[in-house]
Design goal:
The protein is built from nine helices and twelve strands. The chain has two domains: 119 residues, Response regulator (Rossmann fold, 3-Layer(aba) Sandwich), CATH 3.40.50.2300; 100 residues, Orthogonal Bundle (Arc Repressor Mutant, subunit A), CATH 1.10.10.10. The strands form three sheets. The chain has a five-stranded parallel beta sheet, sandwiched between helices. Strands 6-7-8-9 form a four-stranded antiparallel beta sheet, covered by helices on one side. By secondary structure, the chain is of the alpha/beta class. 33% of the residues are buried.
Length: 246
């Protein structure tokens, strides 16, 4: 059973979704405005947020960015558009998943279940079965004292969810950090896209373009380009490898 914050201004839709999600065993709280949602997240943190983009006081994408400034709670966005530009914009703003209107309550419940499963195991997925993996809890919980990972001038702290390059903190989205931490934990290894989809996204049907978008963003923040890689190297036809610059 999860605590769900439903952000939806239409009272009819809100009531119907509350009924469906409650029937699936979730405890549902609701908000009809963006600022109200932000207040709920700070005062009564939920396990997951369902965010409609068409809110009366704030643009939903702005609410998403504000949420990411105060919380790492998983967010599923409800949008009327499913074109690539819109989806990429939402993912870059920090969304974990999205549903396209019109959608059924059952579809939303399934999406929430998938997001909750992925996020509950995302930190454990960052650690290979080695020294840390042997001490990690078997139920997928975050280890109490995961090590800080050092690769060249790049330092990744999974516990604090921070990354520094040459002493300067990198401003990463939730998913960018998850991807970087996973690759850092597997430094000097070529990691296939299939493994990244399974272990980081926990969703085998994510488009390859989604990985490319996040890799491109990471490269910019690491001060490199795909044509001149320093840390992130693409091994054509195989996968991605993070290495210390030579």
């Amino acid at each position: 059973m999860a605590s769900v914050l439903l952000v939806e201004d239409d009272p009819v839709i809100r009531s119907a979704l509350i009924e469906v999600l409650s029937a699936h065993g979730h405890v549902v709280h609701s908000a009809s405005h963006g600022f109200e949602a932000l207040r709920e997240v700070t005062q009564r943190p939920p396990d997951v947020v369902v965010l409609d983009l068409g809110l009366p006081d704030l643009d939903g994408t702005d609410v998403l960015r504000m949420l990411r400034g105060i919380s790492q709670v998983p967010v599923v966005v409800a949008t009327a558009r499913d074109d690539d530009a819109q989806v990429i914009k939402l993912l870059n703003a920090g969304a974990d998943d999205y549903v396209v209107k019109p959608f059924s309550g059952g579809q939303l419940a399934a999406r929430l279940g998938a997001v909750l499963r992925r996020t509950s195991a995302r930190s454990a997925a960052a650690f290979p079965q080695g020294a840390e993996g042997a001490n990690a809890p078997r139920n997928g919980a975050i280890p109490a004292t995961p090590r800080v990972i050092q690769v060249g001038d790049l330092q990744v702290d999974p516990a604090a969810r921070t990354a520094h390059l040459a002493g300067h903190e990198l401003r990463l989205t939730r998913r960018e950090f998850d991807l970087l931490a996973y690759l850092a934990a597997h430094a000097d290894q070529v990691v296939s896209r299939r493994r990244i989809l399974a272990d980081v996204w926990r969703q085998p049907y994510v488009e390859d373009q989604t990985i490319d978008v996040h890799l491109s963003a990471l490269r910019r923040k690491l001060g490199e380009r795909a044509s001149q890689p320093r840390y992130l190297h693409t091994v054509r036809g195989i996968g991605i490898k993070l290495v210390a610059p030579r």
